[in-house]
Amino acid sequence: MTLRSALFASIALAAFAVPAQAIDLEFYFPVAVGGKPAETVQTLTDAYMAANPDVKINAIYTGSYADTTTKAITAARGGNPPQLVISLSTDMYKFIDEDLVESFDRFLTDAEKAEWIGGFYPAFMLNSQYEGATWGIPFQRSTPVLYWNKAAFEEAGLDPEKGPANWAEMVEMGKTLTKKDANGNVTQWGVHIPSSGFPSWLWSGIVAGNGGKLQNDSGTEVYFNSPEAVAALEALVALSETDGVQAPGILDWGATPKAFFEGQAAMIWTTTGNLTNVRANAPFAFGVGMLPGLKQPGAPTGGGNFYLMKGSSDEELKAAVDFVKWATAPEQAADWTIATGYVAPRPDVWETEKMKAYTADFPQALVARDQLDYAVAELSTFEGPRVTQLLNSALESAITLQKSPKEALDAAQAEADAILAAYR
After folding, report:
1. Are 388 and 69 in contact (CB under 8 A)?
2. 100 and 245 share one domain
3. Alpha-carbon distance 162 to 100, whole Å?
4. Following CA atoms 54, 74, 198, 344 in sequence, which dihedral angle do they give, to the nearest 10 degrees?
5. Fewer CB within a 10 Å sphere, N or C end of the chain?
């Protein structure tokens, strides 16, 4: 071999030996429930990078959902967006309206659209697709459920294995479960439905259970003051004012599990995303049931989707999509569900051996899955934060008795109509 050919051969071998430059991705994610979801996200990203050494993912915990959305939008406007963000499913219209996200469909084959996108629960896709395109991928998705303290039920003479099947039963059980001391002060409330922060989420479950819905399928119209909605708010207010089974005023969302653990409330409504937290910290046996409806079963979906942010190269976005496909695949999604309590977003996840073992040992985890058959889309519209805040303020004014339910909802409807007129 000549010197020249040997030199070229060595250069070629050296070039072959040098690994391709790694793709660096940033991924913003929130934490909105108890438990250890932040550690679980890091474990998932570490596992993906171990299997894909050409991709580096910087998973950045960014606080609450609201904080995460704000930081993602700020980074995008500053020209340095993350490739991925987990944000509320209800943020879809906001991201689309501000042209901040890419449709996942652009990076998928027709077969992937049919098999992967088509494999998610339809209830979760209601807040993930718009005009035939997929903008969000369900991940840390949830639905509210009812938890009850079996020890409190047994002490009150109720069957500890049977929660309320409907609203009327919840009220009657609540009366039996509400306890007072010798001075007439309540020491244990029958039920606790939190109303701080975003009361519209749980209240929309009452509306769904009364046969109503809050918005159309294109985010351009709301039905805040429908007869079903007004009656749902009247029922919520009555829990404190006439039924006497719930503490009056605004009840804190974040403190709800603690109120349950400490015996301040025998039944609570909160997200299934708190399931692992309750399992780890409740000092008593507990039951989980579907939300008790006024007329029928019903609940909103909730929680977060993966979104693909604009502003990166196609190579980076393709790598981000690959990570999302991996994270939502059955084995990884099962690990996530078991670690956090969020609802596995695809039927095939529930068929894995680890999920079968988990639910055999902990059948309460099946309640949220089964409730998806009755689930409706969470309130989501264009100008979503403004419209939702109008409703939240209306609910708070009714809960604190500043306005009647109808007065509060009529006012919110009129203001929401004025905002959404431009989108119709």
Report:
1. no
2. no
3. 47
4. -10
5. N
> Are 169 and 180 within one domain?
yes
- Residue-wise pLDDT tens digits, 385-415: 999 999 999 999 999 999 999 999 999 999 9
The pLDDT value recorded for residue 38 is: 80
Residue 212 lies in a domain: yes
190 and 281 assigned to the same domain: yes
Helices (H), 128-179: 150-155, 167-177
> Does residue 387 share a domain with residue 284?
yes
In sequence order, what are the residues at sequence separation of 6 or more whose Cβ sits closer than 8 angstroms to the Cβ of residue 28?
60, 62, 68, 71, 72, 75, 82, 84, 85, 86
Two tokens, residue 407: 């007065």
Q: Provide the domain count of the chain.
A: 2
Query: Which pTM was predicted?
Result: 0.86
CATH code, domain with 100: 3.40.190.10
User: Which pLDDT does position 32 carry in this prediction?
Assistant: 63
CA distance 329 to 314: 22
* Residue matched to tokens 């969302």: 253
Residue 355 lies in a domain: yes
For residue 389, what are the domain limits? Answer: 144-299+383-423
Q: In the predicted model, what is the mean pLDDT of the chain?
A: 92
Q: Are residues 314 and 213 both part of a single domain?
A: no
Mean pLDDT of 310-320: 97
Q: Cβ distance 411 to 224 under 8 Å?
A: no
Give the chain's largest Cα–Cα span.
103
DSSP string, 363-404: GGGHHHHHHGGGEEPPP--TTHHHHHHHHHHHHHHHHTTSS-
So what's the pLDDT on residue 22? 85
Structure tokens at 132: 């035939």
Residues 137 and 148 in one domain: no
Q: Facing residues of 188 across strands?
A: 179
Is the pLDDT at 350 greater than 90? The verdict is: yes
